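Translate sequence into C-alpha cells.
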Amino acid sequence: MRQTTHLPLDVRLMRALTALLLVLAALLLAGAALAWGARQPVFDIQGLHIVGDATHYNAITLRANVLARLRGTFFTLDLAAARQAFEAMPWVRQAVVQREFPNRLRVVLQEHQPVAFWGPEGDLRLLNSYGEVFDANVGELDREDLPRLNGPLDQSAQVLAMYQSLRPLLMRMELGLAQLELTPRGGWHAELDTGTTLELGAGEQAEVVTRAEKFLKTVTQVTARYQRTPEQLASVDLRHTDGYALALQGVATLDGESGKKQ
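Result follows.
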C-alpha cells in the first residue's frame, strides 16, 4: 500500500502564489492587448447612420460638424458626450447615440418642429411643438407666417397651450391669431392677423377660453349693428365682468353692461 506524501505547507503556499501571479499576469496582458486594440485606427469612428426626422441635416453635414469634435474609438468613445455634441446642433432637440461595429455610430435624431416665433417683435428665437424655446437659422424655416408668442421664458409651454386653445375658436370666424403674449402681470394680450388687438384678461386657460367664446358668440351681431364685420374690429377688451368693450373702424361702442375690469 502506497503512502501519500504531503508537501510541506510552505511549498504548497508557494505553488498557489505562483499560480495566482500567473493568472494575474495573464489578465494584465489580456487587458493591455484589449486596450491596445481598442485604440487602433481601424476602430476610429468613420461613419454615421442617421435615422429619425433629419430634415435639416444629413450624414454628410453631421459628419463635418460633429464627428470631428468627438474623441475616442468605437470602444472608448463617451456616448454621453457624443449625444451632447449632436444636441448642440441648432435644429436638434434630442439625440440617441449607439455604437455600430466596427467603426460607425447610429444616431436617432428628433428635430425641433417650429410652431411660432418667441419673444418681442424682431426676436428670432423659435418655439417648438413642446413649448420649448430654441435658437436656429430662421432662413431655413419652411414657412414664414408663424405666429409670435411671448411671455416669461419658464411659461413658454403655457403660452403655447393657450394659443392652441384660442386659435380654433377664432378660425371659426375666419380670424387668424397672429400674436399672443402673457404679460408680466399675468394678463393675456393678443393681436389678430387683421390688426385687431384683444385684451383677454387674466386667469387660467379655461377662464380665458370661456371669455373668448362668449365674445365670439355675439360679436357678429354687434358689429352688424354698425354695418361692420368682425374683420373691421380695431380693438376688443374682454376684461369686463358683465360684457366687453370694443372699437370698430370709425365707431366706438360697448356691448353688454360695463362691469369691473378683471
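Note: Helices lie at 9-38, 59-65, 79-87, 156-171, 205-225.
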